[in-house]
Design goal:
2 domains, 47% strand, elongated, mainly beta, Lipocalin
């Protein structure tokens, strides 16, 4: 009997010990927040929900450039199943609001809504895979006829999700304003300019020019614009002092006026390895012809 009692007591002790080793329910094993789906960049703390996209000018009237639109799911745990978020156009209200907040001066160029015939999102259903955070879908834009001196934007929102009882749509800061910065292979850098200019009638008398940081503005897939000599890099200088460089397939250059500056000839070459333009052009001021010769050498890429 004593032996039986000992066995029973021992068995009871083992049961108690095993019960005490049962894994506790860890809070981090459960979702700690409401799962919400949102467009990356739509938070209004991010420059009023504006995302800046650098987009290459495409070669051809119907040619398109593209970028990926990103959708994400927030929460302490990744989704345990595939979730589909459907994106849709969100109208002009956020563009108007941005203009009113930041571009209110009469001289400011305001954002205009990109025509819906110039962009397309073929697959509006964006899938976030199980155990993932992001899903993407491509956006295609016709760039050939976009004016480099205007500002374009369009807006998107999430219209619905596949499992609204599992993942909800973020209700605040939910519209993404996509603004476009048009670039090409030559424009996404600052440049240093070194050269000289002189009256063609008195070529021995020259004036040196050294500008450590200048901008080249993309105006098409193979053309950039800069400002003549040391004139200010602003909108008011485009017409009187704008100069265009067109790069041919063999890297030879055609130099022309972007406005009213009279250019009577010009040329040069582009070195794609050194990212350097060797240029010359003749220009006319008050009936007198001058020539500029110099180099434009790329510095570091421009920040986004």
């Amino acid at each position: 009997m004593k032996k039986l009692n000992f066995i029973l007591c021992s068995f009871t002790s083992i049961v108690v010990l095993l019960g005490g080793c049962k894994k506790k329910d860890e809070p981090l094993d459960r979702e700690q927040y409401i799962k919400q789906v949102y467009l990356v960049g739509a938070n209004r703390t991010n420059n009023e929900g504006r995302a800046i996209v650098k987009l290459n000018y495409a070669n051809g009237a119907d040619a398109e450039s593209s970028f990926n639109l990103s959708v994400a799911v927030g929460g302490s745990l990744n989704v345990d199943r595939d979730v589909t978020a459907t994106v849709a156009d969100a109208g002009i209200a956020q563009i108007t609001n941005y203009n009113n907040l930041y571009l209110f001066k009469p001289t400011d160029i305001k954002y205009q809504q990109l025509s819906d015939v110039l962009y397309r999102i073929p697959n509006k259903d964006v899938i976030i895979k199980a155990n993932e955070v992001y899903g993407t879908t491509p956006v295609y834009i016709k760039t050939a006829n976009l004016n480099p001196d205007l500002l374009y934007a369009f807006t998107v929102k999430i219209a619905k999700v596949s499992e609204p009882d599992y993942v909800t749509i973020r209700k605040t800061d939910s519209v993404l304003m996509v603004s476009l910065t048009l670039i090409n292979a030559y424009s996404d850098y600052s440049y240093s300019i070194v050269g000289q200019y002189y009256n063609l009638n008195t070529p021995a008398v020259t004036t040196s020019l050294s500008l450590p940081v200048r901008q080249l503005k993309a105006t098409s897939y193979n053309t950039v614009r800069f400002f003549h000599l040391s004139n200010s890099e602003d909108n008011a200088s485009i017409v009187p002092y704008g100069v265009k460089i067109q790069v041919a397939a063999d890297n030879t250059l055609t130099i022309s006026s972007a406005g009213t500056l009279v250019i009577s000839g010009g040329g040069g070459t582009y070195n794609p390895t050194a990212k350097k333009f060797d240029i010359w052009y003749n220009y006319v001021v008050a009936g007198v012809t001058y020539q500029f010769k110099g180099t434009l050498t790329a510095n570091l890429p421009l920040a986004t």
